[in-house]
């Protein structure tokens, strides 16, 4: 077969990317015997997964934390192989505050081009595969993100992806990276620049179907893994009172996740309030516009009806009917407003709500763990007794043993309690409220019988679930 | 804590000898490195060509008093042969300018190379970078990737001083300086993520990780530590090991931490607050969902 042999020849001429990354260490990663299957010139193999390199993870986190605004963004570089998009490098883009749009776009493009050229010279990947965006509290829906991604999805191979990094969650102890791209339905509506109600209905768009999530994996190359292992290894220096105060390795354990503090909640609530306010303003504008449209339309219809009536009387009187005039010229019916902004705001509200809910639920678990963990009072009383007679050189106090057993037994219960809490948690009123959603959907469904034109929303994806558009 | 194998070098910070010299820059006595810089170096090393025994690049960061904080790094092209060493200066300048646009606070502080041998070329490159770091002494960080047999992975940092009666650029003494890893607390979770990824058998981990999973991991770690402490305490009680009073004091301080504020009714208040917030969050989300669907039905 000519086709296969050509593919094989291509495969031979291409350097195997997997081989490049493992070169310095003698690990035996499975390198496919033939790359023919993976060679994908026309970008026909659909992306199934995004693989983020460890270095990119740290680069994004550093940039997101240090950037002057909360909207740090940059480009992702890498290549795709057999359906896996490997992001191997990234660089930040300069932040432009209140600059001239045109000027900043131009300088940003220049920055990009010269950065790419420079990276190519040191054998780094230089093909742009998407961009990353920092966000706080999950509220990353924004016009600029959508615009950039829409351009990328047109220009880049495989459409590119956007990786969203949540600073707030990372600060709470759970580094979070998510990969998204626009759904086909949204892109279609976007290209037509039509976000009227009817367009939304045709494309079945809610905020949860604007973006689809692509599974994301983090990968560390063997060298990095080995190096991290060395860093995390406890130092062999003998334990002495001088070193006790410090961590014994560069990367000692951290327990910021079990911190009971609920610092971020106030800000989260404030942001929700702000987003809801914005949404209400936007809704107000929309309803004002639609009232205006309705008014104009009613006027036009009145006019038509009058003209018809008049004509009828004229016909009855045997006169020639007046010509039907073009109504659209007489009455200017404004174009239906775009609902994109309100859609994005709703998405933002939802994301903020979700992150608030997440904080609350983990807070709940922590509170319960704390209560059901070591029972503080008896432990403290005994300790107070002991501290009156501080340990001398004879070693730890004799009662320490029992004490520690107690603590340990209590703490051993923790996983058990964790699961029982999780069971409890489903009874929290907030969770059952989620059920009311289904009721709402049922109501909407019922209304369908009354209004036949209305959309059946039952097959729309639920919020929080991944949209599954092909 | 040293980032590499312990060194026997003594670091003496000389007293400021005269007031006239106060404006002169002081030799750095302490160097910290951000993980990004380190990981970039490793990545650069991975991407070197076969003919390159080592790679070099520029270190960027900030200076405080006599401490240098290395915050990022970028690769620089260079070639070494038996006769000569060449560094692509244009490239270095371009990259620095590009970098400077995004992180205006970071300036050139020195250079890195992989491998741990210092030779004449190192001295020459050091000389070049000394010109780049106007008025401040350049630092040199050598990262041993630990790939070669019998070498331990680690990071060493040096400052240089001229040697000989007539100083020549190719002669200098590299004086080791203590180096340590430093990052912001908020970035810690990212490193934890990489650490657990690196420890897994496939070197990959999928995102997102549930908050609960991480909490569980932390609690397990606490439990393990308690196990270790318990074993130690038992050994001491049985007389198998000599007790250290300092450890006893530390344990006492840690275990005696106060929980008063949460015990006195604060617990229920906190619980109610949390439940309320959970309720609110779900309410907001439900409203948003209903609202978005009503928008779809409005055309009827």
TrEMBL record, chain A:
Residues 373-402, 446-470 are annotated as: Disordered. Residues 373-389 have a biased composition (Basic residues). The keyword Nucleotidyltransferase does not apply. The keyword Cytoplasm applies. SMART domains: JAB_MPN (SM00232). Pfam families: eIF3h_C, JAB. GO terms for molecular function: metallopeptidase activity; translation initiation factor activity. One of its GO terms (biological process) is formation of cytoplasmic translation initiation complex. CDD domains: MPN_eIF3h. Residues 50-186 form the MPN domain. PROSITE patterns: MPN (PS50249). Keywords: Cytoplasm, Initiation factor, Protein biosynthesis, Signal. GO terms for cellular component: eukaryotic 43S preinitiation complex; eukaryotic 48S preinitiation complex; eukaryotic translation initiation factor 3 complex. It is found in: Cytoplasm. Residues 1-18 form the signal peptide. Belongs to the eIF-3 subunit H family. Component of the eukaryotic translation initiation factor 3 (eIF-3) complex, which is involved in protein synthesis of a specialized repertoire of mRNAs and, together with other initiation factors, stimulates binding of mRNA and methionyl-tRNAi to the 40S ribosome. The eIF-3 complex specifically targets and initiates translation of a subset of mRNAs involved in cell proliferation. Component of the eukaryotic translation initiation factor 3 (eIF-3) complex. PANTHER family: EUKARYOTIC TRANSLATION INITIATION FACTOR 3 -RELATED. This is Eukaryotic translation initiation factor 3 subunit H. It comes from Agrocybe chaxingu.
From TrEMBL, chain B:
GO terms for molecular function: metallopeptidase activity; translation initiation factor activity; translation initiation factor binding. Residues 8-26 have a biased composition (Polar residues). GO terms for cellular component: eukaryotic 43S preinitiation complex; eukaryotic 48S preinitiation complex; eukaryotic translation initiation factor 3 complex, eIF3m. Residues 31-164 form the MPN domain. Transmembrane segments: none annotated. PROSITE patterns: MPN. It holds the Pfam family JAB. One of its GO terms (biological process) is formation of cytoplasmic translation initiation complex. It is found in: Cytoplasm. Its main location: cytoplasm. The keyword Translocase does not apply. Residues 1-26 are annotated as: Disordered. It comes from the Eukaryota. Belongs to the eIF-3 subunit F family. Component of the eukaryotic translation initiation factor 3 (eIF-3) complex, which is involved in protein synthesis of a specialized repertoire of mRNAs and, together with other initiation factors, stimulates binding of mRNA and methionyl-tRNAi to the 40S ribosome. The eIF-3 complex specifically targets and initiates translation of a subset of mRNAs involved in cell proliferation. This is Eukaryotic translation initiation factor 3 subunit F. The lineage of its organism: Eukaryota, Fungi, Dikarya, Basidiomycota, Agaricomycotina.
